[in-house]
Amino acid sequence: MNRVEYDTEGVLFNIQRYSLHDGPGIRTIPFFKGCPLACKWCSNPESQRPQPELIYKKSDCIQCGKCIATCKQKALSPGNPFFIDRERCIQCGDCTRVCPTQALEMKGKRMTVSEVMRELQKEENLFRRSGGGVTLSGGEPLAQPEFARELLKACKEKGWHTAIETTGFARKEVIEDVFPWIDLALTDIKAINPAVHKANTGVDNSQILENLLRISFITNVIVRIPVIPGVNDNPEEIRSIAEFARLMSGVDTIHLLPYHTFGENKYNLLGRIYPMGDAAAHSEEKMDSLKKVVESMGFHCHIGG
Predict the structure, then answer these.
(1) In this model, does residue 5 exceed pLDDT 70?
(2) Residue 69 gets which letter from DSSP?
(3) How far is residue 198's CA from residue 208's CA, in Å, rounded to a whole number?
(4) Could you check whether 9-48+109-303 and 53-107 share the same CATH topology?
(5) In what order do the strands lie in the sheet with 27-32?
(6) Domain spans of the chain?
(7) Three-state DSSP class for residue 62
(8) Which pTM value belongs to this model?
(9) Calpha distance 126→59 (Å, rounded)
(10) CATH node for 53-107
(11) Would you say 262 and 281 are in contact if contact means Cβ atoms under 8 Å apart?
C-alpha cells in the first residue's frame, strides 16, 4: 500500500459520529468544506465556501460588545439586529474567542490527516462490531482531492470500510486517483436535463454524468436522487435519471431523498437568504408514486438515505 501522507491538510466543518444512514453499520462522517455546486436546496450552506467562515446565533447574543471592541477590521456593528459587514470580515476568528456565549462561531477548521484519524479512532470498536466505517461528506470531498485521498488511505490502512457522498463533479484524474480507496460511493443525481441542472446547481452536468459512469466501474455505487419541488419531482425526470442509472455498472438500488427545510436556519446564521423560499415538502403519496416509477425500471428503491 502507498505510504500515507499524514501531514496533508484540509478543512472540515464537522465530524459527525454514530451515523446509521450513510453506508453499512455505524459510521463517522468527516464533513469537508467547499463545494463547486450551489444547489438551491442545500441543507449545509456552511459547507459551500472552502474557507472557514463566521456564523452568528442571534438568540445567544447578549449585546456585550466585546466582539466589536476586538474586531480590527471594524466589520461588526452594534444594534438590533447586530450587523456583520461580510465584505470587511477577514474570517480571522478573533471575535469568537472573546464571545462569552458563543453567539459567534467559526465554521470550518484546518486539520491534518493525523488529527482527523485521532478523532476517527475513537469509534474503531464500533466500526468493527457493526461492520461500519468512515463516510466522507461535505460539501464535496473531491474538492479537496489530496486530503480526501490521504484520509481514505489511512482508513484503509486500519482496515475500515470507506464510503463517500459525492456530486461527482471533479476532474477525471481526481476520480482515478481517489476512488480506488473507496468501498462505496453514494452518488447524487439531481437532473439529467442539462439546463435544469445548471439553473438549479450553477454547473453543467456533462462532466458529472461522465464521472458517475466512470465511478461505477471502479467501486460499488448507490444512486441517490434528492427530490426537489419544481426541479425533478415529476415522473419524467425521475424516469430519465433511472434510465441513466441503467447505464452504470452494477447499480441496482436508487434512494429517493425527500426535500426538507432542516437547513433553512443555517442561511440566517450566515447572513444569507434561503433560495427555496416557501417550497413545501412532498406528501407520502407523492413520494410513493415516484418510488413506483423507479421500481418499474427494475431497481430496488428506498425513500430516505
Answers:
(1) yes
(2) H
(3) 12
(4) no
(5) 109-112, 9-19, 27-32, 133-136, 161-166, 184-188, 220-227, 253-258, 300-303
(6) 9-48+109-303, 53-107
(7) coil
(8) 0.93
(9) 36
(10) 3.30.70.20
(11) no
